[in-house]
Amino acid sequence: MKTGIRALFLILATVAVLGGCSRRQPIYRVTDHPIPAASRDLPAAALQRTIMEAATDRGWSAEWKAPGEILATKAWKDHEAVVEIRYSHESYTIDHVSTTNLRERGETVHHAYNKLVRALEDEIERRLRQAKH
C-alpha cells in the first residue's frame, strides 16, 4: 500500500513541476493604469511623446494612431508582438492586438509576451513619474 501512495505522490509531483514550467500563460493586460499625479497636467503632446519614448526605449516601434492612441510593435528574430496603448490624463491601457510565433492560443501566449508588456508598463510608469512640463 505504501508503494502505491508513493507512486501516486511521485506522479502528482511530476505533473505539478511540469505544469509550472509551461511557457504559455494567460495574456497579460494593463487596464486603466493610473497616470502619476505629477503627469496629469502635462499637455497632450507631452503625454503622447513621453509614452512613445518609453516604448521606443524598450525596443518597440511606436506610431501615433489617433488622439489618445498609439500602436506599438516589438519584432525580433521571427517573433512579433503588437499592442495598442490608449491613454488619457487619468490612466492608460495596454491592449493586446496580435502576436506572431509566440504560441498564442485563445487567451494564452508565450510568457515572453507578458514579460515584454510588463517591462513596457514599468517604463511608461517610470517616464511619467519623471516627466517635466
UniProtKB/TrEMBL annotation:
Lineage: superkingdom: Bacteria
Name of this protein: Lipoprotein
Organism: Azospirillum baldaniorum
